Amino acid sequence: MAGFLAGESKLALSRKWQVSAYSIRLILIEAGVAQAGLNLSERQVEEICRLYRAGVSVLEISRRTGVPDSTARMVLVERKVEAPKPGRRAPR
């Protein structure tokens, strides 16, 4: 985090630590340092969160909403949406 706050890019940090830029982005979002910067409406974000809480998988959320699964994951991380309880099934 210190490197990012000092002005290092996510790409530079990913090379330095030998992890993906996606991993760096997730770490920064979880730490509250960076926003996901997603171009989604609040309605789309709420729908992604609602479906996930209902037990729908990220891939299925992607299919239903037309939002890439990586973007849906970023929304869930940014909003700190907890995983559904085991055994809970999604509505069909």
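[next item in queue]
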Amino acid sequence: MSRKKLLILGTGLLFMLGILLVPGLFSATAHAKPLDPPRICPPTIGNGDADDSENGPVHKLQNDLNKWYEWYSSGDGKDYYSAKKTSHPDFSKDFKLTVDGVFGPKTEQAVKDYQSLHKDRNGAQLDKDGIVGTLTWGSIGECHS
């Protein structure tokens, strides 16, 4: 074999060896971000439930819904839903929830309003039932559903 052929063959072998020794060098996963650790969903809650702790699920839900209502009633929220051509609840009333840990009628209505505008992580419309289960918690961002 000529020197030129040996040089080309040797370079090719070194390249192949480099690919084998450096896993993920040419794969799409080499630069992928790691997944967030899974978060366990809070328990399913509905009208009549209550909690004593400020870290309880009803408190968490009421705080999350207040943040969503605040964003929704801002210009960004209105523009977002208008662009999606989604019907939305009448926010002419004050929908701010009292964060008291009691899942009453006002919290239930706020949940139904939220559910009517959102989908689960698989793209399916949430059931507008006023019950906060795994799919609604996942949509709110409190867990991976």
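[queue empty]
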